[in-house]
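User: Structure please.
Assistant: Input sequence and predicted structure:
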Amino acid sequence: LSSVGRVAAQLRKALGDKTPGSEQLAAAETYSAASLEAAHTYAEAQNLRFAGRGEEAIKAYLRAIEQDPNFGSAHAALAALYANLGQRETATRHYKLAMAQVNRMTERERYRTRGGYYLAVMEPEKAIEEFTALTRQYPADTMGVSSLAFAHYLRRDMVKALEEGRRAVEIYPKNVPYRNNLALYA
């Protein structure tokens, strides 16, 4: 998958895109899957999640996990959705399965997974550390920015939550959950 990203950056440059390849790769979604089929299903689940179609996204993440049981990012994304539904036990179980796969993950996935886990177990200070490191390295990582906002919300720092929530919506204005969270922080 990382090779596809590099080839895409080269193709964009050949077609006249002036964005440096390093920026293109930094902005691109990164995740480690054992198969292209699982990666494709995960991408579909992400699109459903960002469209605010959580129940459908859950089914798609579960399919991705069937295709690759060790797909850490799919477990982490699924855990986040279960946490949003108030199903803490199921969320924690999937985060633990994701955490067991951190050695297979990209650095970006590790930040996201650890940060999400810390949100699920209500350790916002540790989540802030992970998501701050993530967004420092990947400023356009909307999941990181949005999660950083939520971590500040858990600390009851509404000024920072609102600031980071606005930044997430600016980066990805059509993301329904980010917009809902922004309204909550406001």
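DSSP finds eleven helices and no strands in the chain.
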